[in-house]
Amino acid sequence: MSVFLDGALVVLPQSAGGPQITSLRLFRGRVIALGVSPHRGEKILDLQGFTLYPGLINAHDHLELNHFPRTKFQERYDNAHQWGEAFLPKLNEEPFCSLRALPLRERCRVGLLKNIRSGVTTVAQHNPLHRPLRQRCTAPQVIGRYGWAHSLHFTPPETVQAHFRQTPPNAPFMIHLAEGTDEVAAGELSRLQALGCLGSNTILIHGVGLSRDDQVQTLKTGAGLVWCPSSNHFLLGQTAHVEAFSAAGTLALGSDSRLTADGDLLDELRAAHATAQISPAALFKTVTTDAARMLRVPDRGALLPGYRADFWLIAGQPTDPYRNLIDLCPEDIQSVWIGGQKVYQNRAYSPVH
Ligand SMILES: [Zn+2]
After folding, report:
1. Residue 86 to residue 351: CA distance in whole angstroms
2. 217, 312, 333, 347: which sits with the fewest CB atoms below 10 Å from its CB?
3. Interval between CA 223 and ligand 1 midpoint (Å)
4. What string of H, E and C letters represents the secondary structure of the chain?
5. Going from the N-terminus, what domains does the chain have, and what CATH number goes with each?
6. How far apart are CA 51 and CA 44, in angstroms?
7. Are strands 335-338 and 311-315 parallel, antiparallel or unpaired?
8. Ligand 1 center from residue 345 Cα (angstroms)
């Protein structure tokens, strides 16, 4: 049976006319019509006074690491690999030793919950796709088709090459790159290119040390950048220059894990906005349509006919929903839906149906 959502302020992409009060018809988990009248006998949800945002896409997380405390051992690093080298031995000390011993299922659950309660309905895992993340009905859904390598520092070059070659061209290949402000970071894009691993499906995570030339090279290939500003500020004291990627539609936002980041994707939107590099409307694209294209899930990120019915609700109808998104926190989100099914209800609110 189809479901008719009536009267909500629907936050559409600017390219589709922007936010508007309209109706949606859902059928078999997808949006099938917009701005139509209800059929007789159809299930109708009255959403007057509500705003309906498309499910957000978090382009970078390490889902099994979100139960760790935010950690660093000096005020600032020149390169994230210095932090990584300092952190690895600590895994055998408390509290990390005990936290590592928790069942993987529980650890993944923490990461999934962090995401769903902040309106994320699709998340990209950077690490193996652990069994608890593979189930079809996880909330949010974890992207299943991807290739990855950790970084040029921690992954041998031949392994980076092998993983890149094993990644189908229509799946994203993700790698931490230029996560630093030193010469090593500045040289990493050239190294990746020399390995033959900079393709149109390559997604660079962080990119703080990318020069203007590096940006031009990356844009030429069609590769994308995932921006994690709060993590960058925490470790490096600065973040990437993202305007060119945003203008090209190849910029996505990632929360990273709580080990180094502020928290969830809404926190990350706030950190991104604070850099004053791109507008709230451009930021909205980084967590919806542009992220969907980069991660090769083109039917997500917009509430338009043909798209999967992933969305979340807040009370009220702000005059600028793109700007309003920057100020939201999980407590504002009433419920989250994936494929037209409610998967999360904030207990502080009564259900809308
Ligand atoms: Zn990361």
Report:
1. 47
2. 347
3. 17
4. CCEEEEEEEECCCHHHCCCEEEEEEEECCEEEEECCCCCCCCEEEECCCEEEEECEEEEEECHHHCCCCCCCCCCCCCEHHHHHHHHHHHCCCCCHHHHHHCCHHHHHHHHHHHHHCCCEEEEEECCCCCHHHHCCCCCCEECCCCEEEEECCCCCHHHHHHHHHHCCCCCCEEEEECCECCHHHHCHHHHHHHCCCCCCCEEEEECCCCCHHHHHHHHHHCCEEEECHHHHHHHHCCCCCCHHHHHHCCEEECCCCCCCCCCCHHHHHHHHHHCCCCCHHHHHHHCCHHHHHHCCCCCCCCCCCCCECCEEEEECCCCCHHHHHHCCCHHHCCEEEECCEEEEECCCCCCCC
5. 3-55+302-345 (2.30.40.10), 57-294 (3.20.20.140)
6. 16
7. antiparallel
8. 29
Distance CA 139, CA 119 (A): 10
Q: Is the peptide bond before 140 cis (omega within 30 degrees of 0)?
A: yes
Q: How far is the CA of 9 from the centre of ligand 1 (A)?
A: 34
Question: What are 300-326's pLDDT values in tens digits?
Answer: 999 999 999 999 999 999 999 999 999
Please give the model's pTM, rounded to 2 decimal places. Answer: 0.97
CA of 60 to the centre of ligand 1 (A): 7
The rounded radius of gyration (Å) of the Cα atoms in the chain is 20
Strand partners, 10: 20, 52
166 CA to centre of ligand 1 in angstroms: 21
**Position of tokens 């997500």?**
300
pLDDT at position 350 = 77
Tens digits of residue pLDDT in 207-221: 999 999 999 999 999
